[in-house]
Design a protein that fits this description.
The complex is a heterodimer.
Chain A (H helix, E strand, L loop, with lengths): L1 E5 L7 H12 L1 E6 L7 H5 L2 E15 L8 H6 L5 E4 L2 E4 L9 H5 L5 E16 L2 E9 L6 H9 L8 E4 L6 H7 L4 E6 L3 H16 L4 E8 L5 H8 L4 E6 L2 H8 L9 H20 L1
Parallel strand pairs in A: 1-8, 1-9, 2-7, 2-8, 9-10, 10-11
Antiparallel strand pairs in A: 3-6, 4-5, 6-7
Helix pairs in contact in A: 1-10, 5-6
Chain B lengths: L1 E6 L17 E6 L4 E6 L9 H11 L4 E3 L5 H9 L3 E3 L6 H9 L22
Parallel strand pairs in B: 1-4, 4-5
Antiparallel strand pairs in B: 1-2, 2-3
Helix pairs in contact in B: 1-2
Classes of the chains: A alpha/beta, B alpha/beta.
Chain lengths: 280, 124
C-alpha cells in the first residue's frame, strides 16, 4: 500500500508526520519525493549505501561546418535553440531532452551528450526502513526526471510512505499519483485552509482517497475543522502545537523519540489508514 | 538601417513597452525609407523562452538595433551573438525614442537590466 503525505501550504508538517509514521511502523519503504528541497534524511539519518546519478540527454551542435541549424531552432517547442548567423545559441535549462533537434537537424552535426541533473540515494534506517531520496542539482529544472527515477524503486506490495513536495503543481502530482491514500497535512489558519482546499480539489481530481491531519492545533482557529465536518472530509488526527516538539525538530530529532504516547498515536494513524484501504 | 522597438501599441505615438520578450507589439522602423511596420508579438504567450523566441524574430528580420524598456538575460545573449545594438531603459513614445536615437541621445546597454521572467504577471 502506498501512502502519500502532502499539503497545500508548505511548512505544515509533512516531513515531521511522514518520518514519524515510518519510524513508528518500523518496516516500510520511505521515499522523499521533494527532490528540490529534500529534508527527511535529517530526521531519519539513513545509512546511505548507494548513490546513482540521474542524467538526461542534451544536444551538442557541431558548428564548425557550413551546415544550417535553422530547422532545430524552428522545431524546438521550448525555445531552447536560437540562431544568429552561423552561431547556435543553446539554452540548456530550457531543453527537455526530447531529441527532436537531432532528428530534424543536419545529419551527423547534432550529437547527444549526457548531462547530470541530480542524483538518487538509497539506504537503510533501523529497524527495517528502506530509504530513498532524490536530490536535484541546483539551477536545473528537471524535477520530474529525478522523481521518475525514484519511482522505479516503489514496491507497492510493501507499505510505502511518500513524503511529497508542498503545493499542487507538477512535482506534487508526480509524488501522489500512484498512492492508494493521501494524507493532507494542514495548519488551522486561513492560509492553511485556503491551500488545503486547493490540494483537496487536486486529489479528488486524481480519485485518490484522502484524509486530513491538523498539525499545530491551537495556533489559529477552528475553520479547518468546521470545513472538514461540513464537507464530510475525514479528519484523521489533530496534533497540538507544542514548543518542545518544535525544539526537537530544530535539532533534527525525530519527534517520536522519547515520546512513546506520540509513537502510539502514529501507529494508530497508520493502522487506521491501512484498515480504511482494506475496507474499500 | 532597421530598428526594432518594443511597443504597447501599433503606431509611433504608442509608448515604448517596458518589456521585451512579452510586449504586445514590435514596431520595425526603417531609417533608410522613413517607414514603419508593426507586428504582434507572438512570443508573449510562450510557455518559456519568450525572450529567446522574440529575439529570434528580431534576428530573422535583419534588425541592427533594438530599443526597449528592459531586456532580460536570454534575449540579451541572442542579441550579443548576432551583434545587434541594444538600447534599453528607454521610456516615452516610440517616435521620441527614434528621435533620441537619431540625435545620439541614447546609450548602449552593456548588460541585461532585469532577471528572467520579469515581464510576466504584469498588465498584459
Amino acid at each position: 500500500m502506498i501512502i502519500s503525505v502532502a499539503s497545500g501550504k508548505g511548512g505544515t508538517g509533512k516531513t515531521t508526520i511522514a518520518t514519524a509514521l515510518a519510524l513508528s511502523v518500523g518496516y516500510c519503504q520511505f521515499f522523499d519525493f521533494d527532490v528540490e528541497a529534500p529534508n527527511a534524511s535529517f530526521f531519519l539519518k539513513p545509512d546511505i549505501k548507494h548513490i546513482q546519478k540521474v542524467k538526461i540527454k542534451q544536444p551538442v551542435f557541431l558548428t564548425d561546418t557550413d551546415k544550417s541549424f535553422k530547422e532545430c531552432a524552428q522545431f524546438c517547442h521550448y525555445n531552447a535553440v536560437a540562431i544568429a548567423g552561423s552561431e547556435v545559441i543553446f539554452f540548456s535549462e530550457l531543453c527537455h531532452g526530447c531529441g527532436g533537434c537531432i532528428l530534424v537537424g543536419p545529419q551527423g552535426s547534432v550529437r547527444e551528450e549526457d548531462v547530470v541533473v541530480g542524483e538518487i540515494r538509497k539506504g537503510m534506517v533501523s529497524p527495517g526502513i528502506e530509504f530513498f531520496m532524490g536530490d536535484l542539482k541546483p539551477g536545473t529544472m528537471r524535477t520530474t526526471e529525478i522523481q521518475n527515477a525514484l519511482e522505479k524503486y516503489i514496491e507497492k506490495e510493501k507499505l510505502v510512505i511518500i513524503d511529497c513536495p508542498p503545493g499542487t503543481s507538477c512535482s506534487m502530482v508526480t509524488a501522489v499519483k500512484n498512492s492508494n491514500h493521501c494524507i493532507l497535512v494542514t495548519e488551522p489558519t486561513p492560509f492553511g485552509l485556503n491551500d488545503l482546499i486547493l490540494s483537496i480539489d487536486l486529489v479528488k481530481e486524481l480519485s485518490i482517497p484522502f484524509g486530513v491531519i491538523i498539525n499545530r492545533d491551537g495556533i489559529g482557529n477552528s475553520e479547518v475543522e468546521n470545513y472538514c465536518s461540513q464537507n464530510n472530509i475525514k479528519l484523521l488526527a489533530k496534533f497540538p502545537y507544542d514548543m518542545n516538539i518544535a525544539k526537537s525538530y530544530s535539532k533534527g530529532e525525530a519527534v517520536i523519540s522519547g515520546r512513546p504516547e506520540l509513537k502510539e498515536k502514529f501507529l494508530d494513524l497508520a493502522n487506521k489508514v491501512i484498515k480504511d484501504k482494506e475496507a474499500e | 538601417m532597421k530598428i526594432c522597438i518594443s511597443s504597447s501599441g501599433t503606431d509611433l505615438d504608442s509608448n515604448v513597452d517596458p518589456r521585451f520578450g512579452r510586449c504586445p507589439y514590435f514596431i520595425i522602423y526603417d531609417t533608410d525609407i522613413d517607414k514603419f511596420e508593426y507586428f504582434e508579438n507572438e512570443s508573449r504567450n510562450a510557455m518559456g523562452g519568450a525572450g529567446i523566441q522574440a529575439a529570434q524574430f528580431v534576428v530573422n528580420k535583419g534588425i541592427s538595433t533594438v530599443i526597449s524598456g528592459a531586456i532580460g538575460p536570454n534575449s540579451f545573449k541572442v542579441f550579443n551573438a548576432a551583434n545587434i545594438n541594444i538600447y534599453s531603459g528607454v521610456t516615452g513614445t516610440v517616435r521620441e525614442a527614434i528621435d533620441k536615437l537619431k540625435n545620439g541621445k541614447l546609450v548602449l546597454t552593456p548588460a541585461p537590466d532585469v532577471q528572467s521572467h520579469s515581464g510576466m504577471g504584469r498588465n498584459s
